[in-house]
Write a structure and sequence with these properties.
With 341 residues, the chain is an alpha/beta fold. It has 14 helices and 12 strands.
């Protein structure tokens, strides 16, 4: 962050491979919304001549055969090609928007988003609630956000079950998610196919001595707004990745597995948080992309792109019906005691 540099005089490096910002002194990622315009510009200018970068090599080795065949890519063409079995390795990138209908608010929606609900805390900027430095100074705002997420009796949405349906049909390659609510697993998506870019609430750890804590104890303290501390005196934090913390190694390892993908589906994300945003955009410039969202998250649309605008579950219902998977979806929903379409 700009303040980080000015206050600490630590040098910040930008990676050409994923456009993430990294402080070598602190050994952590740096994220600030003021850098989003810079990383968007760098994404457009990213040199083609870098050939010894393993992440770039992985991205550039994508099967562009699908992209080349997809000129004139439209919604109807996507439906027909999916029916015909053209897409066998679909990668899904998801954000908070797919969990809103489960009762978990997203972050940026005016009036209802979690950031708006934190105005009374007079944060230096909204994203500070997920800053590891700020959490160590004042964990209460995060507890308020976590209370909104962790104490809701949330059940998977149609979007989650659609991902599960892709998985059941052998079409899901990977599901990269920014969400920490583990609703993908509750819907039955294979755990080995879910990549939690920002960690999840399925555990908790002391920041000082690294002792592991029962997530139910963490949840109880969050519900009561009672700050949980370890016997050593350190703060305990859910295993959610904060700004200033390194993303899980599994995330970067899984990015290299995208080489076999033939279609990208983006749902419920504004693509504003780095490095998830830039890495997703780089992938989307290589393959056909279908995006289901309230707003278009791309400033510059991918070459082969279908944007389905609207409430996500409603659009998923229409999509399932158009593909002819309604019976399969209803069977899946019934198995989870959920109402049919």
């Amino acid at each position: 962050m700009q303040e980080h540099f000015l206050q600490s005089n630590h040098a910040i490096a930008c990676s050409w491979s994923d456009l993430s910002l990294w402080c070598y002194k602190c050994d952590s990622y740096i994220d600030d919304r003021r850098f989003h315009r810079l990383t968007d510009a760098l994404l457009e200018l990213r040199p083609k001549i870098i050939t010894n970068d393993p992440m770039k090599a992985a991205i550039d080795s994508f099967a562009i055969r699908q992209g080349q065949a997809a000129h004139g890519f439209t919604y109807d063409r996507f439906i027909n090609e999916l029916k015909q079995g053209k897409y066998q390795k679909i990668c899904v990138f998801t954000g908070a928007g797919i969990s809103v209908s489960a009762g978990i608010p997203d972050f940026r929606s005016p009036g209802t988003g979690l950031y708006d609900k934190l105005k009374s805390y007079e944060l230096p900027y909204a994203e500070a609630v997920f800053s590891i430095d700020f959490y160590q100074e004042n964990p209460e705002p995060f507890y308020q956000v976590a209370k909104e997420i962790m104490t809701v009796d949330a059940k998977p949405t149609l979007a989650h079950y659609f991902i599960r349906l892709l998985d059941m049909k052998g079409l899901l390659h990977l599901n990269f998610t920014q969400n920490v609510d583990v609703l993908e697993e509750l819907a039955g998506v294979s755990k080995e196919k879910v990549v939690h870019a920002h960690g999840n609430v399925g555990g908790a750890t002391c920041l000082s001595c690294k002792t592991k804590f029962d997530p139910e104890l963490m949840k109880k303290h969050i519900k009561e707004m009672n700050i949980l501390r370890c016997q050593c005196g350190g703060l305990v934090k859910p295993n959610v990745i904060f700004f200033g913390e390194k993303l899980p190694d599994d995330y970067f390892i899984s990015m290299t597995k995208l080489t076999g993908a033939d279609l990208i589906i983006v749902m419920g994300t504004s693509l504003k948080v780095e490095p998830f945003a830039s890495m997703t955009k780089m992938v989307c410039n290589k393959l056909p992309v279908v995006c289901i969202n309230l707003e278009n998250p791309f400033k510059t649309n991918p070459k082969d792109y279908v944007f389905i605008q609207g409430q996500i579950d409603n659009k998923i219902k229409e999509l399932v019906q158009n593909i002819g998977w309604e019976a399969d979806m209803n069977t899946l929903l019934a198995a989870h005691n959920r109402p049919k379409l």
